[in-house]
Amino acid sequence: MPIKIPLHLPAKEILEKENIFIMDENRASRQDIRPLNILILNLMPEKEKTERQLLRLLGNTPIQVNIHFLKTATYDSKNTSAYHLEEFYQTFNEVKTKKYDGMIITGAPIELMEFEEVDYWDELIEILDWTKENVTSTLHICWGAQAALYHHYGIDKYLLPQKCSGIFTHRVLDETDKLLRGFDDEFPAPHSRNTELSIAALNDHPDLKVLAVSDEAGPLIISSKDGTRIMITGHLEYEATTLAEEYSRDKARGIDIHVPENYFPDNNPEKTPPNRWRSHAHLFFSNWLNYYVYQETPFEWK
């Protein structure tokens, strides 16, 4: 089944060319089914690129999904046009009286800041607390995962000696967990961050379980025991060239950055990197939508 997106969203044309099954509001209104309503709080600077990455994965399940985009009211994005934000995004005040089957909170390139220094931290805390009663399951990505672990569980991030960037092998720690159903025992996933979480602190918390970990890149997938919160420290949603674009951007800014590990063929930035994590990315999002959202959400919110 498809995802339902706004009629003129720019990502629509790109996804249609990739044969991703999508529909606009006009066609969706003629289908007599109960779709899932998914809210995406997009904190990334290049919002259209992140939209495309997430919609590609959300559109590959047998469940019809209605997508709603959320922006911060206390911080204005400088990398996305005001028209795009006004046309396709809402603020928290506009949605806080509603219920959602699932929610995604993206990462943001602000991990070197203390959480309390972030312009929209108070607003994000309000949203995180709101999800407890108004969202069936929330998926937090990269900085969004670190923010959730800090606010909900008191687990802080710490600075790495150098940026963790590349494709790393991860071990499945609990093959019986529904989120990892169908996963290989080992699988690759992209990381791109300057901070890390303590695996000991995660393991010691009674309300958390670590589901996948890398010897090089640390914990990747963490879940609350009840499945209402999923935290992923990497970027399964990344496209094949995303890490290359980030590497070129940082080099152009004069940042002393190493070549992403296990990424470019022959470790040569002039060569086109392959996507080696696509199948597990689709499986992860499908499992989350099916087992943690669709199977758990009420047919009618009270």
TrEMBL record:
InterPro entries reported for this sequence: Class_I_gatase-like, HST_MetA, MetA_family
CDD domains: GATase1_HTS (cd03131)
Entry EC no(s): 2.3.1.31
Alphabetized UniProt keyword annotations: Acyltransferase, Amino-acid biosynthesis, Cytoplasm, Methionine biosynthesis, Transferase
Keyword presence, Cytoplasm: yes
GO cellular component, one term: cytoplasm
SUPFAM superfamilies: Class I glutamine amidotransferase-like (SSF52317)
Swiss-Prot/TrEMBL site (Important for substrate specificity) positions: S192
Catalytic site positions: C142 (acyl-thioester intermediate), H235 (proton acceptor), E237
Pfam families, A to Z: HTS
GO terms of biological process kind: L-methionine biosynthetic process from homoserine via O-succinyl-L-homoserine and cystathionine
Molecular function via GO: homoserine O-acetyltransferase activity; homoserine O-succinyltransferase activity
Residues bound to substrate: K163, S192, R249
Record site: Important for acyl-CoA specificity: E111
Superkingdom of the source species: Bacteria
Family, as annotated: Belongs to the MetA family.
Primary role: Transfers an acetyl group from acetyl-CoA to L-homoserine, forming acetyl-L-homoserine.
Protein name, per record: Homoserine O-acetyltransferase
